[in-house]
Structure formats: C-alpha cells, structure tokens
Amino acid sequence: MSAPSPAELDRDLAAFFARGIDAPADEAAFDRLALRVFAWQYEALAPYRAYCQRRGALPQRLRTWSEIPAVPVQAFKDARLICDEDGRTPEPARTFRTSGTTTGGRRQGEHALSADALALYHASLLPTFRAFVLPELAPGRTTDLVPLVLGPSADDAPHSSLWHMVEVLGAELFAEEPRHYLAPGPPAGPDAAALDAEGLARACEAATEAGRGVCLFGADLALDRFLGVVERSGWSVRLPAGSRVMHTGGAKGLRRAIDPAALYARVERTLGVPAAHCVNEYGMTELTSQFYDATLRPGHRGAGLFAEAPPRLKYGPPWVRALVVDAQTLEPLPPGQPGLLRIVDLANRGSVVAILTEDFAIAEMIVAAGDGAPDAAAATRPRALPFRLLGRAQGSEPRGCSLDAEDAVVAGNGATS
Amino acid sequence: MSALHETSPSPTPAVGAPLPPALDAAGVTERWRALSDERAALDHRLAADLLPALVGAMRRLTAPNGPYRARLLDGLGRSSGWATGAIEEGLSRFARAYTENALRAAIVRAVGGLETLDRRGPRRAVAPHGTLLVLSSTIPWAGIESLTWALLARSTCLVRVSAGEPTTVPLFLEALAEEYPPLARTAAAVYWPSDDVATHRAAIAHPEAVIVYGDDPTVRTWRALAQERLRPPRVIEHGHRMSVAIIGRGSLAPGVTDPIADALVREAALYDRAGCLSPTVAYLEASGAIRPEDFAERCARAQARWAERWPVRRADDAQASLTHQQRGACEMAGGQVWASADPAWTVALDRRDPPPAPVPGRFLWLHQFTDFDDLRSRLTAWGDGLSTIGVSGWKARDAELTTIVSGTGATRVCPLHTMQDPSLDRFHDGRAELADLIAIRDWELA
Prior knowledge:
The complex is a heterodimer of chains A (417) and B (446).
Chain A: H1 6-18, H2 27-44, H3 46-54, E1 71-72, E2 94-97, E3 110-113, H4 115-133, E4 146-150, H5 161-173, E5 179-180, H6 197-209, E6 214-219, H7 220-233, E7 244-248, H8 260-271, E8 278-282, E9 291-293, E10 313-315, E11 320-325, E12 338-345, E13 354-363, H9 376-380, E14 387-392, H10 401-411
Chain B: H1 25-39, H2 47-62, H3 67-80, H4 84-97, H5 100-111, H6 114-118, E1 123-126, E2 131-134, H7 141-152, E3 157-160, H8 168-179, H9 181-184, E4 187-190, H10 197-204, E5 209-213, H11 216-227, E6 234-238, E7 242-247, H12 257-269, E8 279-285, H13 292-309, H14 317-332, E9 336-339, E10 345-349, E11 362-369, H15 372-380, E12 386-392, H16 398-406, E13 412-415, H17 433-437, E14 439-442
Parallel strand pairs in B: 2-3, 2-5, 3-4, 5-6, 7-8, 7-12, 8-11, 10-11, 12-13
Antiparallel strand pairs in B: 1-14, 9-10
C-alpha cells in the first residue's frame, strides 16, 4: 500500500466526518481510512515505524483497524509524536500537555498538533459535541444557552486540551462568550488560584432571572468543590429547563474520588439540573476526538428520563473505534469483559492513530430490536461499540482534567484535602 | 485519616493464607494489657539466654521435613504467589544469616555488647515499654528481624500482620513458644482490617515505639497517628526504597558476562522484585567490551531461565497495564525491549534521562553510562529512595566508586550476587534498628 499525501488524507477524512454523527457505522470505509492513515504515519513518523516493524506490523500486511499497533499513552512523554509533512516536521500550532504529575523529574505527556491537525481536531470536536450535548441545535446555528466554565480560559491554560476545546465550542456553538470561574492550576501560591463560587452562583441567578438556560462546563473536582461551597451557604437555584452540565475528569488516583451518581444528585438539588442533563465527556490529551454519555441523544437507550446510572455507556463519533483488550495479552476481548481501552481515532492523523490507554472499560454489544442474538463471530469481531469506563489502573499516575482542578482547588482558599 | 494501604506481594493470590481472627479496639487494648503482665518474667534473664531460644525457633522454622517449614512454604506460597523454589531460596538465605554469632555481632555493633541489653554495664539499655510492629507483606523475614531486636531489648511486642502475609511471624512465635515460652508470651501476632482506624488508634495508644513497614501512605498514616498522642511514641519507618546494580567493564567482557547477567536476574527474580533490595535498574559501563544490546540479550535469556525455574507470579491488571505502557514507551523513545509475551518479565535497554520510574515485577531496566559523572548523576536522581547498590566488574576502583556513591542516598554497596543478603543488623535505611529502638542510660556508679 503506497502512502497517501496528508492533503489527500485530510480531504478524505473531512468527507468521512461530513457524513455526520448519525451516519450508520461503515466498517469497510472506516477500515480503509484507518489503514491509509496508518500507512501514512508509518512513513511520516520514524519512531512509530520502528515500533511497528518490531511487531511485524507493516502497512501491506494489515487487514483491519484493530491490527494497527497502538502506542501507549506513556510514550507521549518522551517522544514528540508529530508526523512529518512534506518531508519535514511541521511547526506545532498547539501543543497540549497532560495534567499528570511529573515523576522523578519526567516530562508531562505532550500532543503537538500542526495547523492541519488542529483543523481536524475542530472538525471532530464540533459535530460530536453538538450531537451529544446540544442535540437540539440545528447545523449552522448557535445556542442561546449561557456558557459558564468552572475552569480557566485557554489563554490562561494554553496547554490544556480541555480548555482549548471549551474556547472553540464557545466561539463556534454559543451565541455568547464563555465566562470562567476558576483560575488555572497549579498556582504559584495559596492565594494565586481561587474558585469564584460566588461569581458563578450570581451568573446562575442572572441566567435564571433572564429565563436563559445554562451550559456549565467543569471538571468533576471543581464541580464538587463549587457544590460544596454553595451547599454550605444554603444557596441553590433552579436553572431554567434545558440547562445542562458537561463534566469531565476521572476519579482514579486523585486525592479525592468523586462518585458520579452522588454528584448528579447534588447538581439536581443545587442547580435544578436533572441527571439526564449531566453529560460526562471522556477525552484525553493524546486523542483528538472525544466520547460522551448519550443521555441527551434522542432515541438513544438511556436518554431522557431514564438516564442510565453511572458508569454510563460512552459513545464516540463514527470516525473513532474503542476496543477493549486483555490487560495481560493485549488481545481483543469480546463485549462484556473488562480490559484496557485501546482507541483508534482517525482524527489523530497528525500523530498516531491508535492509542493504548491506561483506562479500564467494558465494551457493550448493542442489539437493536429485531436483530436477534448476535452470533459468536459477530460478538468477537472488533467494531464500533460503546463502552463503560471503569477507571484508571491503580498505581498509574493521576492524570486527567480533574487533576488541574484539583491542583487549583487544593492550593486555593479553603483547600478540600 | 486514611486507611492503611496493604502492599500485598501477590496481586492475585489464588487462595490466601489464613488470617488470625480480626481484633477490634477493645481486643487490641486487652492484648496490650496481657503482654504487659508477661514482661516482668524476662527482667532478670540474660540476652545470652534469649539468643539460643530465638535461633532455635528459626531452626525449627526452617528444619527440612519439619512441620513449621511445610506450613511456612504453604502459607507463603498461597499468600504471595511466589514459586516454592524462590521462597525456599529466600528462607535458606535468611536462615543462614540468622545465627547466634551473627546476632551477637550485630548487638555489639549496634549497642556495644550484650551487657547493654542486660542493663549490667556502664551503658544500660532503656527499652521502650511496648513496641508495635506494623508489617507489610513484601519480604517475610523483615518482620522477624525487627521482632528479634525488640524481644532482645525486652520490649513487649504487638505485631500487626498484613492480610497479604499473615504466615511467617505467627509461625515463628509458635516455634519460639516451644523453645522458650516466657519469651514467646511477650509477643503476639494479631490482625485487624486495614480500614479499621479505631483499632489503629487503640494499638498505638500504649507502646513507646512503633516500627512500620509499608508504602508511603501507610507510613504517613502511622506517623500521623503517633503524633495524635500527647507523648508520641518513637516511630521507626521502613518505607519504600529501591536498589540498583552497577555493571563495570570488568563484567562486560567475553567469557564472564553470562554469569553476571544470571546473577543480576536472579537477584531481581527472587521475590519478583517486591523487596527494596532487588535490582530495579542496572547501569552498564560504556567502555565494556560487550555491547549493551548483547548484555541485554543475555539478561533476557536469564529471565526466561529463571521464569522457568521460579515461575513468575501473575501480574494484576494494573501491573500488566504499566508493564505494557513502559515497554512501549521505551521503544518509542528509541530503546529496545526483550520481553515475555505476557507481562511476566522484561529487559528494557533505555536511553532516556532521567530514567523512567520502576515497574513492579521482573521488569529490569538497563542504562548505559558513559563516565563517572554520568553514573553519579543517574544514581543521585533516585534521591533518598535508593537503598542498595550491587556492584560487579569494578575491581581496584574503590576510590572512584566511593566518589560516585558519595552524593547519593544509597545505604549499602555490596557485590551484585549478595544484594538480597544483607547482614542481620542493617536495614534498608542504613541504620541498625536495635540502636534506634533503645535509649542508653550511662551508669557511672562503681
């Protein structure tokens, strides 16, 4: 298989993305694109080529996306994984860094994106977020929901993929600029960062008085901290119908673990936002696309009033595949069995398309009414399946967006630990 | 207050060894009272009388075909997941070191002589009224060492065994009861759950000394509990440390390298690298005739051999994940990896600086060093976490080695093949525990 040019790939990826979130899973088309992206990366990224060669994974030998060698997320700490374009390493337009603590002076993980790779990031982000968090929003329109952010602005946290994401979402999908209520972390000192709980509460009240719904963004720990502060003061509000919360951040490895079910109950009690309107996002610095709960997706199982209890199923866009593999052997597992999450994200065209995470998950086979029971071959064939996230492996470094929030919250006034 | 973190040696033991019945706070308080009643019986016994009893108990524990040995191997095998051969090797190494002469010599080095412990000479031991030992479940013999010093000091001992290794100390005390019942009655091996903070508090309410083994959160927990007391007990902490090997050019020469690679891997394989004395990293001198890739290959062959002889205990999923992550990250950073198909064993020749973090299990990092400054900076990077440096192929360069090691936190430098065989009176923190445990009262009367 000859390696395509990045321009050709980007054009074909854009066309694939343009089919939309609701396009039926086209395994053949996904396979073709994934293998082309892999073939290009094999040529354009020398360390990855050597890695694949040692595994005998040459582009001409692979038959399907699940055979693409996955790069462990830890590799993003020491190798700059940005593919050459036209024979040279492109200047990164953005470099996102993991929020994990450094160990023994080691670097944080880095995901450098060229201008073209950043464009793919946006092309993946916007339709996916709209489908899972703003499904009522017509294409080309912006929402009147007030974007309130329990996190810093992208200017204040230039290496955070999460806050970059919120900035882009604010500019593209919201009629109003996002407002931020948490300074960046880790701060220089105990007074350098503070959660502006009062400001956020006032903004919620103002939106309520104006009858405008709110879209609140935040990492779990910041949300927990905000709720803790306002609960102690006895404050609460009933945000207008349609308000929603997009939260993110794992619970493993943190000083405090957040129980999502309890968090939803507190959000409902304090902000008047039902659990079904709380959408958990799963993303990582090393990936370009994101996964979400489908509780707001019309017609999805677990949507609306009967929102699933956590851990909810996570869905990604059609240009992403999640595969659960045996932690011992790294061999794919059939749905229903817990293992490590391996992700193939076509939008990662600029770095590596297949990533081995440190997160444990269970893939779930969704059988539509009338399909009958899946046969054994279907059950083991890797394909587009949602998954339930079980958490990080114990002993892994704490990382994820909650850690940024944790740094800020713990060091700020009224530390929680 | 956080709960204890049990550092189980076996992530997935097939069947755990039986635990002593769990005590609650009242039960622990009652145990302390009962132990206190027994103490007077030893007041006038000489240390020289106690030594044979302790050594005799160890002999019973390890006697071939004896009942204790069989129970020990069975219990440790079930709780740790270690191969029987590896447990036997560890047991025989410890038993060889645990002799009356060695104990005497250790006492002399630590406190001047047996008469100090007997409160007869010009320097008289003031032993803690009660010593609480909180054991983790990494290396089973460490608890016996601490218990030995506390008993010789005539301190009553409450030993909290961990759920991951509840076998060794109870069996030792059983054997000691056959040798000399009054001494055995001054110690008790007990258990309570790691999240039972009320019982932690009851246990630490009475003793004047606490010896804690465990990971950093466990040590922090007990340090904080000790500080809650108006007069805090002395806390002797044995937290997490790690060891490394230096392979000099003398061992990287044709004809000598295979046994060196074998010894390196054997020291790592003995407890599946669970102990603080196992080599985590080997630093290879660049001027050696054998290329690092060749040495790594020899290590890989040794890993495969030792995995056959002492089967590797199964990694839990977290360890497996970390193993795969670090293997891949090493390769992506330009390193080379030799490994089993599963996470059982790994040899990773790595070029990153600073080096990656240790990975549990038989995961051996190899790094080449170019000169002494390079080696010193690599060793210094481990900070105070460094315990033992095992050395091979360094003949006649003692002065250079002294300089290299001087700025590091290492507490022991030894031949490669004895990394797991420390002398009885040295602990992984480089201090004689007996000296830390007692105070000295100078006796200046004629």
